[in-house]
User: Fold these one by one.
Assistant:
Number 1:
Amino acid sequence: LMFAPIESVATGRVVARPPRTFYDTMVVSLPLGHQVVVGDRAMFEGILLGEVEKISKEVVLVSLYSSPRSQFDARVGNPSAIVVVSGTGGGSFTFEVPSDVVLRAGDTVVASFDDTVPLAVVSGVVSRPDTTTQTVYARIPVSFSDIRYISFIRAHTDDL
């Protein structure tokens, strides 16, 4: 997939990340005079990770989309299926798709509120003969330990 380049409003250094933080959050240190606001989206190397939940001076708390309390609409597959994705913690997600939707490990998942950047990749699909749906497992395509800096982008106002 090709995604459009996105201009960030600020970049910050990650000072705490899972598993040292609770509920799939990241603590990010920002430079003085940053332009980040609550609701801005957090990205790492073109991957959508989460949203700014709190700001305290130059420290930002980012709630990751993989948080166990997170649930949102996303698109996956070609032709794309709209699914309800639930965060399961640890950078992982799960969702259901109809049995006739063909998905493979490595397929890209994009959030419906911002389909210009990837959110996760499919890591497994489990189907059972006694049901009309398949359970899909996905995860962010990077290790939390590799995330040293986060870029912030403004959420589109029509998404809010």
Number 2:
Amino acid sequence: MKIVKIPFSSGSLGKNIGCKLAPDIICKDLNVVNLNVNKNIEETGKLIYDYVKSNSKLFLIGGDHSITYFSFKAFAEKNKDCGLLIFDAHPDVQSSDFLTHEDYLRLLIEEKVISPEKVLIVGVRAISKEELEYLREKRIVYFDMNKIYELGIKEACGLIMERMNKFNGLYLSIDIDAVDPAFAPGTGYIEPGGVSSLDLLYMLNRIKNMRNLGMIDLVEINPKKDFNNLTINLGRKIVEVFL
């Protein structure tokens, strides 16, 4: 799998600007491709889209979660029957007039890039009333932390894989805030009560063997907000899972 750095944070609404620094730090000493992005979201989006469209088996390291809008669009055009598996504390289906890291998923659904039934969100624990209504209206499946706790990590992972295994292609998006801030404090949105770093790595080590896994992104790590490099080191561990 080819690793691609996307040091972009203009979609973070100014709340996680430092995440553009993460790719260089996480990928130190690794053989990677660097996309020379700028602050313009449209130009950056085209760069991401074109690169993903002409390449396969990529691991993108951002950057904020808005990059997934462009990369998944390109992935979906090449994989007509594909699923989107997201690890995130937030569902990212807020209503907005422009693309941000808080509404990229809603835009993908509203623009019919992906059908709601092909989306699964894992680790949700911070959700607005508007977002909850949208998830219910669209019947988007999500595993909140209560459900994961009740099922246990092994059974929850099995159900996640069973659901996502039916698609021809699978895009995996990992927002680091899915992890409890005790293990990953370096991010823009601190949400207590997430999965442990061990639980995440356990699930990823199982998911990496799925036959349909075609693309991955890792987003929202902010070195400026990190403590003792806990989040950066976890980011490296996540990358190592798929090398």
Number 3:
Amino acid sequence: MTLNTDVKWFKSTNYNMPQLSNTWGCLIDTLNAVLIDGLSLPVVTSISIDLETKKIITVDFEANHELDLHQVVKISGANSSALNGEFKIVAKTASSITVHSMSIIDSTSGVITCSLPSLGFEKVFSATQKAAYRSKDNNSNQLCLYVDNTCSDGAVETGAKFGKVAIVDNVSNSGELIGIQVPFDPASPSKNFNKIGNYHGWYKWVYAAGHYSYFGIQTFFINSEPSNSNKKFYIVGDATAFLLIVYAATTGESYVFGFGDVDDVNLLSKNTFLLSHNNYIAENSGTGRSLAYESTIGSLNIENRPKCALYFDKSGNQNFTTLKAIPSLMTTVNDAGNMGAIMEASGKFNLLEAHALSGHYYHFPLYMLTTQNRLVGPIPFLKAIAQTITTEGAVITETDGCGYVAIKALDSQGYLLSLGER
């Protein structure tokens, strides 16, 4: 198992995790915990070292820690400096974890605490149900994710719950967005954040939605009320980028959202991406929005519908560029008898036999592509697969030593979240 702790992951069932529920504002609480504050864990009752290696440490808690393999924990308060730091979980029971240190540890004395450390972003602006987050990595593009998790004046408060999101240069102390915004419509400058007519927001991270079956497609309406339950989610990221995967409805499909830096193979430098719903949906829309067609990745339709946005264009200028994401292994076979097409997408069929050494998945990068068919680079932390997902949420360790979480993006499609590398 790789012991690098740069990539961290979180899940909705983690101890003290703020939940994504059918309420406005809770997205900010969750992002604060994962990006800024981290999560406290139960009281540590004992800590022991393997006497032979002096590198394998077992931590016992007074209660169920709700941790999982490949999660990164932070140990603090030890008298030994080698024991203070971040470690990846290599084994666990309900009330204990085992981690592997790369340094020899001779002592476990001290007033020791254990926590889930954050990704290490900074919050450059905060207001009620609003915030702006930025990477503290000096090698990043230093752009901000702005999140407005309010229900705009006059909008349907009981409908779908979401954060209105954007990439911005900076935010003033008074909340004014400074510099270039992505997305931005000069003909309607407040389009992304305010209610205009029957439209409430543009780029959205939807985390709670009601659903209906609409011509055989699972569909949500902006003005329909979601169930009053906490939504399952995963977050994986590093100091410069992260993905949020949330099961907003009760149908088993997830949305994949994200923000951060990506290596742009065309620019030969970093670009900044925003993975989001981007349809300008009327609250009184009678047609709804299907989970499949509006999923941020891997939809059964492969038209040039943009699913996300880039900050820099192909010339490196600050120019809003829309993207589409094409799953690996996708082919189209015309089925004249049914006047349709047979799609082979990530996780939809067992296109290849699972590899023999572990019986797990063959996985491949999922590339970002602009609507002008310019290749950008792979979406970080996300892998397309050539087999169907057998158990949603399963945490596996592949033969490369990295950890992965299997997710269902749609009823018939699946992906892997990479827990050890981008």
